[in-house]
Amino acid sequence: PPRPAGMGDVPEPCPQAPLAVLSKVELRVSCKHLLDRDTLNKSDPCVLLLMQSQGQWMEVDRSEVIKSNLNPVFAKIFTVDYYFEEVQKLRFEVYDSHGQAGVGTHDDDFLGGMECTVGQIVAQKRVTKPLFLKYGKFAGKSTITIISEEISGNNGYVELAFRAKKLDDKDLFSKSDPFLEIYRIDDDRSEQLVYRTEVVKNNLSPIWEPFKVSLNSLCSCEEKRKLRCVVWDYDSRGKHDFIGEFFTTFEEMQKAMGENKVQWDCMNPKYKIKKRNYKNSGVVVLLDLKIHRVYSFLDYIMGGCQIHFTVAIDFTASNGDPRNSCSLHYINPYQPNEYLKALVAVGEICQDYDSDKKFSALGFGARIPPKYEVSHDFAINFNPDNDECEGIQGVVESYQSCLPKIQLYGPTNVAPIISKVARVAADEERTKEASQYFILLILTDGVVTDMADTREAIVRASYLPMSIIIVGVGNADFTDMQILDGDDGVLRSPKGEPVLRDIVQFVPFREFKNASPTALAKCVLAEVPKQVVEYYSYKAFPPRCPRPPTPDPSLGSPQ
């Protein structure tokens, strides 16, 4: 059998939103022909991963130490975020470790380094480069190989618990010290180390610690892909003794879910040929298997989750008389005002995810007919039983027709509208299905008056399927509004209870005045996919089964 793997109009950039993570990438590392720094044994290598940030190299992670091995294959999987639009510089440094003292950073312990970018590894999938010592000197014939795999959206991870029984004894004066390795067999028949367990000392019936691996890593998300599992007797000098192996698939492993167990004969092919009555070299048992699915935003959308869009418009007196051209609510026949620009930019994106194309449109801070009492959550179409408008154009028309009928007043209270949408979202939550998610767009010209109630309402809403986008219109000082956007710290209710999820995004419209409408939408909606996934993951609601395509009503009936 093979030896063990070496343990051997340019839109403005959004001021708040970080770059969107395109995906996560798993990196596996192996080395060959490392320098031998130890006098009696071989080097005990360990790999450090560093990333460049603002010109400085920062260590982000490190591998396990592999004893006495110049051709190590590290079990550690490094996970990095991949940004398509950024050059992400990586540096791998290999050191000879010294037991309890850990990884030294002296020149004597340095076995070599290599620099590359995440983009290079992702583009090539497998990169092999020479290792260099200080001052650009080759580290002998040493090489390092990095293999990358993208963690796909509809992925997840699996938790496995193995034990073995009656393994062959390979040691003279004590019992074997077994560990288990799992390899994925790829399409080109090469083997990729997936996981290596810890060593259980002096035990022929070891119980290994449960461990988690991604489905992508284990079987490339293909249940029938062949896996090779090998049991070794550990040797501190790196010359591990082969005990036996077996082949399986993730499909077969899944029989171990619930109360069931799956077991395999651990076979040594040499003994099978030589020994007439050879049965096995022990038995390996899968005690338990748990699957944890991880879903993406698109999984929920393709499963039929609808995005319900509500807009709330500030009609307080500080906006100015709508008949005056200086008013933020002035209707100019040639140029939409800031309220309309923000509404259309965000609404046009959201409408693609709502099949009935009907949007709730609410107003606050105005005196409304017939009694002209102040309201903080009125339907701008003046239909209390149905506040929905037909499409974005319907919202625009309702907004324009309601302005002459209301009196701008105050104060700027937004908690009632947050609570109103939250009540509808709470009804949706009770279905225990990922079928509707709510986005509330609040357009306001000033700092909210009911800050304590608003904070309380946001904390309550963070437990529901909803996100809140606040766009500050006009030139007011919006400093106090930043507190609602959890970017600078966790938002808390007046009693100190933190939000479950960061669900608020605040931006002043003036930062996008000279940008295209898509820049504003991109910025304020950047966080929404993450917020949707966070909510449904917290609730453990899987996406519904993908639905057949829905005909677009705007296209008319098929011929």
Explain how this protein is built.
With 559 residues, the protein is an alpha+beta fold. The chain has eleven helices and 26 strands. The protein folds into three domains: 128 residues, C2 domain (Immunoglobulin-like); 136 residues, C2 domain (Immunoglobulin-like, Sandwich); 243 residues, 3-Layer(aba) Sandwich (Rossmann fold). The strands form six sheets. Strands 17, 18, 21, 22, 24, 25 and 26 form a seven-stranded mixed β-sheet that branches. Helix 6 crosses helix 10 and helix 8 runs parallel beside helix 9. It is elongated and about 100 Å long. The C terminus is likely disordered. One of its GO terms (cellular component) is plasma membrane. Keywords: Repeat. It comes from Vidua chalybeata. This is CPNE7 protein.
Q: Quote the distance from N terminus to C terminus.
A: 65 Å
Low-confidence stretches: 8-22, 546-559
Mean pLDDT: 86
Q: Indicate the radius of gyration in whole angstroms.
A: 31 Å
Q: Tell me the total number of β-strands.
A: 26
Query: Could you say what the CATH topology of the largest domain is called?
Result: Rossmann fold
